[in-house]
């Protein structure tokens, strides 16, 4: 779980105002992560997929940013959005790709092109 200083502004304000609640939320996230055999990078991709399915632009941004920090390839992040096409539909997948590119296209993470 992220520490309060690395959270987006609104979430950091809630965490600051309600530290016990945020500690409990963080502990729940850690317990969920430790509940089974899925390795960290695969968990990140699953969480990205869940954010895509929920239509959460902020969640997609967060999981992409953290995935890149954890060593995931940009192509893996894009593939998650492409895998959404048959299940969630083309429009949701395209939206997810644009959200992923928001992060991948940032300095230090240039978008890759395919021929």
UniProtKB/TrEMBL annotation:
Regions crossing the membrane: none
Residue intervals of the Carboxymuconolactone decarboxylase-like domain: 19-102
InterPro entries: AhpD-like, CMD-like
Domain of life: Bacteria
Name of protein: Carboxymuconolactone decarboxylase-like domain-containing protein
Pfam families with a match to the protein in the record: CMD (PF02627)
GO molecular function: peroxiredoxin activity
Lineage: Bacteria, Pseudomonadati, Pseudomonadota, Alphaproteobacteria, Acetobacterales
């Amino acid at each position: 779980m992220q520490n309060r200083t690395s959270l987006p502004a609104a979430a950091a304000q809630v965490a600051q105002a309600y530290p016990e609640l945020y500690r409990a939320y963080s502990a729940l996230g850690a317990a969920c992560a430790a509940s089974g055999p899925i390795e960290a990078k695969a968990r990140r991709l699953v969480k990205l997929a869940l954010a895509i399915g929920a239509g959460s632009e902020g969640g997609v941004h967060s999981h992409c940013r953290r995935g890149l920090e954890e060593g995931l390839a940009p192509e893996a992040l894009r593939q998650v959005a492409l895998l959404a096409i048959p299940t969630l539909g083309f429009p949701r997948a395209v939206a997810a790709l644009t959200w992923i590119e928001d992060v991948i296209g940032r300095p230090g993470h240039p978008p890759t092109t395919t021929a």
